[in-house]
Amino acid sequence: MHEKSPPRQRIEAIDIARGVALLAMAVYHFAWDLEFFGYVEPGLTAVGGWKLFARSIASSFLFLAGVSLFLAHANGIRWSGYLRRLAIVAGAALAISVATRLATPDGFIFFGILHEIALASILCLAFVRLPAIVTLLAAGLIIAAPHFFRSPFFNDPWWWWTGLSQALPRSNDYVPVFPWLGAVLAGVAAAKIAGRIGLLSWLAGLDFGRWSRPLAFAGRHSLATYLIHQPVLIACVWAAVQFIPPAQQAPEARFLRSCEAACKETRDTEFCTRYCACMIDGLERDKLIDGVFAGDENADLRSKVEKTADLCTVETDNAILQGGFE
User: Fold this and answer.
1) Which of 62, 124, 118, 116 is nearest to 85 (CA)?
2) 7-60 residue pLDDT tens
3) Which residue in 2, 179, 192, 237 is a FRET match for 145, CA 20 to 30 A apart?
């Protein structure tokens, strides 16, 4: 089949899709801000439906980045525009790292979604001209890689950007190469297939009406919208704190709720209740509790907490098998 060139005019449907993703991101970030300032349960946005919501948003952004990469350079790489945009995205990623390092050093963003898009813009450029099946195969391998190639070798912080370390590093936005580069490649392949069957030309001819203009505008200026929306949301929640402060909870209660919420992703309620109580007791016994509550991220504390977690897992499983605590 003869391969059709993608339309040269801007496709409003893609701008709208990007705008919808930005709106979803704003909803998630607002929930995260409420959690950060203590208005909602600790750990709320890291588990369950919120966790799935966050991953869906990241996937859609990266998929659309792949679509845009194909549309921009399928007819030949436009080097001046490509290098200019790459510099802007990379500069914005660096700015976010610096800002979050100063604001939240315990969870600063060292490799978030903008870092991923910047690197993907380089790594995926070669796939723009390759067959879609090759690109899809590469995407599948990259998405599967973390399930098969995790290694202690990648535990060093210099390799955290790969996503192949055995323990996930702490960060407020962690989008490593494996598996997330696969979403960008999937976007490249999907755009290539859509162009071949004429879907892109059909989308380019659609008129969505006035209702879509705010979404399309945000989608056309996605980087600016991304950079601006979270500081605005944080400022709004911070202002609310000054007039209606959240109810204060003891650190132990916050830890238990966060622990149980994370635990229930993989285990049942009975196990999680016992396990998290064991964790509190163990951390207090070993005089680690203050460091954990303070967000201390040193390697020695992490190692001791992991040993406590392993011990509590064994003790809780044994207690449940025996029908009670010894």
Assistant:
1) 118
2) 667 899 999 999 999 999 999 999 999 988 889 887 788 878 998 999 999 999
3) 192
Domains of the chain by residue range: 12-242, 251-321
Token pair for residue 190?
Answer: 């999907």
Tell me the pLDDT of the chain averaged across its residues.
Answer: 89
pLDDT band of 326, cuts 50, 70, 90:
very low
Distance separating alpha carbons of residues 179 and 128, to the nearest angstrom? 19
Please check the confidence at residue 101 and state whether its pLDDT lies above 80: yes
pTM of the predicted model as reported, rounded to 2 decimal places: 0.83
Lowest mean pLDDT among 103-107, 124-128, 281-285, 314-318: 103-107
* Cβ neighbours, 10 Å, residue 84: 11
